[in-house]
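Q: What residues go here?
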């Protein structure tokens, strides 16, 4: 094998600015699996460098050196750091391209699930803080305020993120 693995799980999916991988599709124009991948990429607005292994012997040699066979389609994924992955199987390639076009939510789901109870608990703490005198009351008030600020901050971040997509 020339470079790196073709296992799907090891291929990082990133769309960060300047980190979009270079995508080359080793293919043949008449191959129906290749047509499926090319059409899917076109629908998703993803540009693939098409490397016709029949037309250019160099592409075939590269493919065979990397994979040990000339079966197409295979997507060569070159990351910003120069790491290269070879991804065979049309359906896996399409799945990978789809993931590339989706904006992953950087905030885990459990954070958003936590927001409604945190909102309620924060108000309870604030009310308790207002009722209870002394240091304990102040601490409850402070804790409740932090909770409310966290909920509001998350809400604002979520709305701004939704506007960008
Ligand atoms: N399951 C594969 C099938 C790929 C396949 O059968 N490709 C044919 C061309 S359409 C091929 O390269 N055959 C020649 C070979 O395996 O050397 C996929 O979905 O990508």
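A:
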């Amino acid at each position: 094998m020339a470079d790196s693995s073709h296992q799907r799980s090891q291929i990082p999916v990133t769309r960060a600015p300047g980190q979009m991988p270079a995508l080359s599709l080793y293919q043949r124009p008449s191959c129906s699996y290749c047509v499926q991948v090319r059409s899917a990429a076109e629908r998703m607005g993803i540009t693939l460098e098409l490397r016709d292994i029949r037309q250019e012997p160099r592409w075939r040699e590269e493919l065979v050196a990397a994979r040990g066979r000339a079966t197409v389609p295979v997507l060569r994924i070159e990351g910003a750091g120069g790491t290269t992955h070879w991804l065979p199987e049309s359906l896996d390639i399409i799945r990978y391209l789809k993931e590339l076009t989706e904006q992953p939510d950087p905030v885990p789901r459990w954070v958003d699930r936590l927001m409604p109870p945190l909102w309620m608990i924060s108000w309870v703490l604030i009310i308790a803080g207002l009722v209870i005198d002394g240091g304990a009351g102040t601490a409850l008030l402070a804790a409740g305020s932090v909770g409310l600020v966290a909920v509001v901050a998350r809400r604002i971040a979520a709305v701004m993120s939704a506007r960008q997509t």
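A: Context that may help when evaluating the design: The two ends are 40 Å apart (CA to CA). Helices lie at 32-44, 57-67, 90-101, 109-131, 134-164.
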